[in-house]
Amino acid sequence: MEGTAKTLAELTPGEIRQLVRDKYSEVAAKPKSKYKFRVGRDYALDLGYAREQLGTLPDTMTDAFTGVSPFLARFGELATGEVILELGCGGGLDTTLVAKQLAPSAKVVGLDLSFAMLQRASQFLSTGEHSHVSFNQGLAEEIPLRDHSVDWVISNGIFNLSPEKERILTEIHRVLKPKGHVLCSEIVLNQDPSPEERLNEDDWFK
């Protein structure tokens, strides 16, 4: 019937990516609105981010946080001089906390499909304090970096949002240097979603 919304099974990968882009652009514009997933500073604190860490970041980063784990902010094996790529960086919270662990000799790149989220992230860089950090718009399925140019690929809850997870893995393999590393935090379900949840686009963001 005309006007009836498509189910997820009827959407193309490109349409699903646009759905994700629109949703997270909405979060960037209106982080205080109610969503089916948690957003913001209090959520980050509940996950386990240190209050002292978040206190070093502006509200533009913490208000629109939507990750799934504090693990990236605690990880200690990153080294100065390395190139670190964060896929799905959102408002830049993890990207910047990782950069704070490293000397300016490192290069930290945040990649996100939502320009509105990247605008939030980039506001912090105008101070010039983190010249070794950059934010770029692009797809995790089509990473705009050279082959074998990255030491680490990190992410905080993006695979669950992608309709083409294999393409992300292929791209990660392409951009990683030999003996490069991957560190990804993801959602783990306690039970399988119902058929209705699998097909309903509103449930994609739970």
CATH topology: Rossmann fold
Number of DSSP strand runs: 5
Task: Provide the domain count.
Answer: 1
Q: Can you say what the CATH homologous superfamily is? A: Vaccinia Virus protein VP39
Give Rg in angstroms. Answer: 17 Å
List the strand order in the largest sheet.
3-2-1-4-5
What is the N-to-C succession of helices and strands?
HHHHHEHEHEEHEH
Number of helices: 9
* Percent of residues in helices: 25-40%
What is the 3D shape? globular
CATH structural architecture: 3-Layer(aba) Sandwich
* Residue fraction in strands: 15-25%
Q: Which structural class fits the helix and strand makeup? A: alpha/beta
Distance between the termini: 27 Å
CATH secondary-structure class: Alpha Beta
Rounded average pLDDT: 89
- Sequence stretches where pLDDT stays below 50 over 5 or more residues: none
- Main sheet? 5 strands, parallel
Brief descriptors of the model:
16% strand, 9 helices, 5-stranded parallel sheet, Rossmann fold, 206 residues, alpha/beta, globular
Describe the SSE topology.
Blueprint: H1 13-29, H2 41-47, H3 51-54, H4 59-62, H5 71-74, E1 83-87, H6 93-101, E2 107-112, H7 115-123, E3 133-137, E4 150-156, H8 165-175, E5 176-185, H9 195-199
Helix pairs in contact: 1-7
